[in-house]
Amino acid sequence: MASEEVKLLGFWVSPISIRVEWALILKGIEYEYIEEDIFNKSPLLLELNPVHKKVPVFIHNGKVVLESFVILEYIDEVWKDNPLLPQDPYERAMVRFWAKFAEEKLLESAFFATCCPEDAEVKAEKIAIAMEALEKIEGELKGKSFFGGESIGYLDIVLGWVSYCLPIWDEIGSMKFIDPHKFPAIISWMNRFTNHTVIKNKLPPRDKMVVYYEERCKAISIHVGAELEITWS
Fold first, then answer.
1. Residues 133, 198: Cα–Cα separation, whole Å
2. Tens digit of each residue's pLDDT (9 = 90 or more) over 124-172
3. pLDDT of 71-106, one tens digit each?
4. What's 207's DSSP letter?
5. What angle do CA 169, 25, 59 make, to 5 degrees?
6. CA distance 30 to 25
7. 206 pLDDT band (50/70/90 cuts)?
């Protein structure tokens, strides 16, 4: 399949599009990356994703696949080598459950808490939701090297943002999501994950991320509802 057309429209700091790149590289798939300016969306992006107008957008031989979870599963089904999802139907169902849980309960709450306006009650509520989610994820990780067992799998890729975004959000939001005493399994997993060659070589520069999220949080504090979604889309 080396001669096939594989393209990805993404945004350099978006954990949603970076996870697709990780999957492609882990599977050894050659692809063309097209950087998008999500604040000045290109005609190509609007043409390929007219419904949501978001990245990532995956193109395979002229066919467009949208939404990162769907893209990851598509990649795993088309390119069979180095499978990301488990073979057992029940285990696949559980992976999908935890992926959806983490996206809805942890990603959104942690980011909102980071960039929350000066509303202590709302911030505390979002932190509580995120911490509860982390506790459940900690339990799921105990005794494992990766969510996928001894190697990186689908859920590791989906939750990969935790390893490099949460420490930065902690810093920006004056919080402490990543507590080694509360979450030793998550901390160990973070270290293993970010030290993997593929992951380490495809992480956004930390200093640029800090500047980016500081600026986005300032904007979000003014336009909370409208700006929260666009930050990584």
1. 27
2. 999 999 999 999 999 999 999 999 899 999 999 999 999 999 999 999 9
3. 999 999 999 999 999 999 999 999 999 999 999 999
4. H
5. 95
6. 8
7. very high
Give all strands (DSSP E) within the chain, no chain letters: 6-10, 32-35, 57-60, 63-66
Please tell me what DSSP assigns to residue 7.
E
Q: How many CB atoms lie within 10 A of CB 98?
A: 18
Helix (H, G, I), strand (E, B) or coil at 149: strand
pLDDT value at 114 more than 70: yes
Q: Are 9 and 61 in contact (CB under 8 A)?
A: no
Helices 206-220 and 166-173 meet at what angle, rounded to 10? 50
Any residues with CB less than 8 A from the CB of 233 and at least 6 apart, and which? 11, 14, 16, 38, 52, 53, 54, 55
Phi, psi (deg, nearest 5) at residue 6: -135, 120
Are the C-beta atoms of 231 and 216 separated by less than 8 Å? Answer: yes
Cis peptide before 56 (omega within 30 of 0): yes
Residue linked to tokens 């935790």 = 162
Dihedral sign for Cα 129, 92, 16, 140, please: positive
Residue 117: which residues within 8 A CB-CB, separation 6 or more? 221, 224
Give the pLDDT of residue 224.
53
Could you tell me the pTM of the whole model? 0.93
Q: Which residue has the higher pLDDT, 135 or 117?
A: 135
Beta bridge partners of residue 146, listed in sequence order: 149
Give the residue carrying structure tokens 């978001």.
Answer: 54
